[in-house]
Amino acid sequence: MSEPDPRILQPGDPGYDAAGAAPRITKPRSAAKAAREAIRRNPRVDRAYRTGVKVVGGTTVGLGVVLMPLPGPGTLIALGGLAILGTESERAKRLNQQGVALAKRAAASARAAREKRAARAGRKGAPQA
Question: Looking at beta carbons, which pairs linking 89-92 to residues 24 or more positions away fall under 8 Å?
Answer without folding.
Answer: 89/54, 92/57
